[in-house]
């Protein structure tokens, strides 16, 4: 399988969970690890500040933000916890999200709500959706005078739905409501320009669709909102004897949280370079076509239904198998054990979906294998 290290004996249709790292990017990741081990003190104390600054600059350029607005974090769950615990919210305040949000991030806000007394409101977005305008109007029904923060995914994890977050952020700005966008599935799958998006806070993984090493993510906080954010982990960057001596407190608080392996962060620019060279419009459109083919072909099986019109999903498609009364765990196990297909089977409310993720390495025969397996099961 060119470029990727994936097992060629597995039909890998689950890029959306953890991504897959191209060989060139993984080599760069290991190169940074070797550099660290050659002289750890020199690397961590003297070289790392400049290396992180350069990596942030490249990420900021790629995502349309200022370098002082972005820090590296392990994943969006980390960033969601930081916002949930930082913002001055208490009894009478509300955080509004959809009922399509990623479980770990939802739990972060629910946990903080128990500690601080605010309320988490989940506004239902019924499927199938009809239009972006209908999504915005339906979501806005959950807004009240108590809404202090909107937390919403750019592309939802359980339902692979692309949401009109720019419109929601604009409407929230007009209403004086803060916004945080979970872009875990966005960079690398769709174009992202944070300056145009209008969110106050944004987080994303780099190890999913951007194809960077595991454990690399970004946390964006608009410069005029950085005073609202407290560090989730207090380390040397907080006290008077700072490690990196940044003028920007947001960067200082996040760039030295204790000893860690920064290689995944430093390899993100290599992933961006690989994206620009390899994931051309032609390759991305081909991947989208394969996802849409999987949905269309599966829908020809009696009892299996489509969920979204093509315009609402990209390289992740949903196959609704609810009417087949299948057990989700059994289906996932059989797909892998009998057919060597790695694809998530998602429980969402009272429905069961097979989520299909396609990428540059996906082939037509992979899709045919999945459809044949669903027919037989």
Automatic annotation (TrEMBL):
InterPro entries xrefs: Aminotrans_V_dom, PyrdxlP-dep_Trfase, PyrdxlP-dep_Trfase_major, PyrdxlP-dep_Trfase_small
GO molecular function, one term: transaminase activity
Top-rank taxon: Bacteria
Signal peptide: none
Domain Aminotransferase class V: 28-368
Keywords annotated in UniProt: Aminotransferase, Pyridoxal phosphate, Transferase
Protein name: Aminotransferase class V-fold PLP-dependent enzyme
């Amino acid at each position: 399988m060119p470029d990727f290290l994936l097992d060629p004996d597995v039909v890998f249709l689950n890029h959306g969970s953890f991504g897959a790292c191209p060989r060139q990017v993984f080599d760069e990741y290991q190169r940074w690890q070797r550099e660290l081990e050659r002289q750890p003190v020199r690397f961590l104390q003297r070289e790392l500040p400049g290396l992180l600054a350069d990596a942030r600059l490249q990420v900021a350029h790629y995502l349309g933000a200022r370098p002082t607005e972005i820090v590296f974090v392990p994943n969006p769950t980390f960033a969601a916890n930081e916002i949930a615990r930082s913002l001055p919210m208490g009894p009478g305040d509300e955080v509004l999200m959809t009922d399509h949000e990623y479980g770990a991030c939802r739990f972060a806000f629910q946990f903080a709500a128990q500690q601080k007394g605010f309320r988490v409101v989940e506004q239902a977005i019924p499927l199938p959706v009809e239009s972006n305008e209908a999504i915005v109007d339906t979501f806005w029904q959950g807004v009240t005078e108590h809404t202090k923060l909107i937390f919403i995914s750019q592309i939802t994890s359980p339902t692979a739905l692309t949401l009109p977050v720019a419109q929601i952020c604009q409407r929230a700005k007009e209403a004086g409501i803060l916004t945080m966008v979970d872009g875990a599935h966005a960079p690398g799958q769709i174009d992202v320009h944070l300056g145009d998006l209008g969110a106050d806070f944004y987080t994303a993984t780099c190890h999913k669709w951007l194809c960077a090493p595991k454990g690399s993510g970004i946390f964006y906080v608009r410069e005029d909102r950085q005073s609202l954010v407290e560090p989730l982990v207090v380390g040397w960057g907080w006290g008077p004897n700072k490690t990196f001596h940044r003028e920007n407190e947001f960067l200082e608080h996040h760039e030295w949280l204790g000893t860690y392996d920064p290689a995944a962060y430093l390899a993100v620019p290599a992933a961006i370079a690989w994206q620009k060279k390899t994931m051309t419009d032609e390759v991305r459109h081909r991947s989208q076509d394969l996802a849409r083919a999987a949905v269309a072909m599966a829908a020809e099986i009696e009892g299996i239904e489509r969920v979204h019109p093509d315009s609402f999903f990209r390289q992740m498609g949903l196959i609704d198998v609810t009417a087949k009364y299948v057990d989700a765990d059994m289906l996932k196990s059989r797909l892998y054990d009998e057919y060597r297909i790695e694809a998530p089977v998602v429980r969402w409310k009272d429905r069961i979906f097979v989520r299909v993720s396609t990428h540059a390495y996906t082939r037509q025969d992979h899709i045919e294998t999945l459809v044949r397996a669903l027919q037989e099961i």
